[in-house]
Amino acid sequence: MFKTPLPKVLLIIFLTVFSIYINLPGSFTLDLTRYKINFNKTLSKPDLKIGRFNLGKKNELILGLDLQGGSRLVFEADTVNIDSSVSGDALTGTKDIIEKRVNLFGVSEPNVQLSEFEGKKRIVVELPGIKDIKEAIKIIGTTAQLNFAEVSEEEDKGLIPTDLTGADLVKSQVQFDQKTSKPVVAIEFNEAGGSKFEKLTEKNIGKPLVILLDNNIISYPTVQDKISGGSAVITGDFTLDEAKNLAIQLNAGALPVPITLVEQRTVGAALGTESVQKSVNAGVVGLVMVMLFMILSYGRMGFVADLALLIFGTITLSLYKLIPVVLTLPGIAGFLLSVGMAVDSNILIFERFKEEIIKRPFTDALEISFGKAWDSIRDANIATLSTAFILANPFEWNFLHTSGPVRGFAITLALGILISLFTGIVVTRNLLRVLIRKSGRVKE
């Protein structure tokens, strides 16, 4: 007999229930009148707040450009004043910065590429599902100039510029004030900038220090004391989006090449609703066939494997919503491939079990089967994860040039493999242990 795997079973139940909760829509109508029960109400998912995150809100899947459409922007680069020997590098640098700005803006799976039209260099930006297109244009095409100024004691002189600028900035990020919970922008200076800032704050204790972005005053905090260490916080009446946009502009830096927007248009979904529905239907049919095969081939053990597969799908979908992962058609293909690998793990275990059950008692054979099959499962999944890692290109290796859809495939595949390892080894194993403890034997 096995030891009662109660903690692990409780963990499995908790993860499953939590995932179902995340996958529920924000509100839904429960109508039981068709079953002659007097109940027809619209129910809302209760709030579940963890810190600043509200998991009770409506979580929707984010679809890529090929599934939901979006916007297409074309910028023309002005390379007249740039030496021809470095213009290629300058254009590549501009493209990289735009891609970084778009990613920081929250647009997932963007497609940013260089093109040429009638001898003119252009940068094409495709943004899936973007709503605030004007703000996106502003984020992509503008260069934020950060300056610090002192307030002159003489009224006619106004503000006095200082030598502390955005060039001294290392990074900026959104944080939240511990007292007011309002968003602020934390900035960190380099060594030279930290020294300038320390002297500036020492000189202006009790006075306001004006912070300007593109010559517009965004904040004028009063200096309470000398600030050392090269770190500071920009406060103001920011909304969360305003604070994020400010951090984006400060982090992205200046564009090496001036650009001008020459085209803007809405892009329809390439596949269309009907094609997407057919793809989903095909996936469901394939999944049902796989589950039926497992039951016919392995009996109750196959049923347990199917239950683990459903848990796998539930957890995966919830993570797609929480991270969030942008689903493109290649991304859906990556998920379906990971489903196959999840089933493959159980097949390896059950086939090993058929060999072990001849030599030893049932419970020992099952435990040994999991142990011996693990080496094959581990090696196969590590090989696939390595390929997915390369396709995802997280370090922006220039020699790979992977596109957004390819990255989407790699991300869903890698995430699916990691979850399938958990469900294939932990979930299936412990559910079988529970069944064995209750019945004493699981029939093949």
Structural features:
444 residues, alpha+beta, Multidrug efflux transporter AcrB transmembrane fold, Alpha-Beta Plaits, Gyrase A, domain 2, 3 domains, 4-stranded antiparallel β-sheet, 17 strands, disordered C terminus
Helix and strand topology:
Blueprint: H1 6-23, E1 27-31, E2 40-44, E3 49-50, E4 53-54, E5 62-63, H2 65-68, E6 70-77, H3 84-105, E7 111-117, E8 120-128, H4 133-141, E9 146-151, E10 159-165, E11 169-176, E12 183-189, H5 191-203, E13 209-213, E14 216-219, E15 231-234, H6 240-252, E16 259-267, H7 272-322, E17 326-327, H8 329-356, H9 362-392, H10 404-439
Parallel strand pairs: 5-17
Antiparallel strand pairs: 1-2, 3-4, 6-8, 6-16, 7-8, 9-10, 9-13, 11-12, 12-15, 13-14
What does this structure look like?
There is one protein chain. The protein is α+β, with helices and mostly antiparallel strands and 444 residues long. It folds into 3 domains: 6-21 and 272-439, Multidrug efflux transporter AcrB transmembrane domain (Multidrug efflux transporter AcrB transmembrane fold, Up-down Bundle); 70-142 and 256-267, Alpha-Beta Plaits (2-Layer Sandwich); 146-252, Gyrase A, domain 2, CATH 3.30.1360. 51% of the residues lie in helices and 21% in strands. It is built from 10 helices and 17 strands. It has a 4-stranded antiparallel β-sheet with strand order 7-8-6-16. Strand 13 and strand 14 form a beta hairpin. Helix 9 (362-392) packs antiparallel against helix 10. It starts with 5 loop residues before the first helix and ends in a 5-residue tail after the last helix. Mean pLDDT is 79; it is low at 438-444.
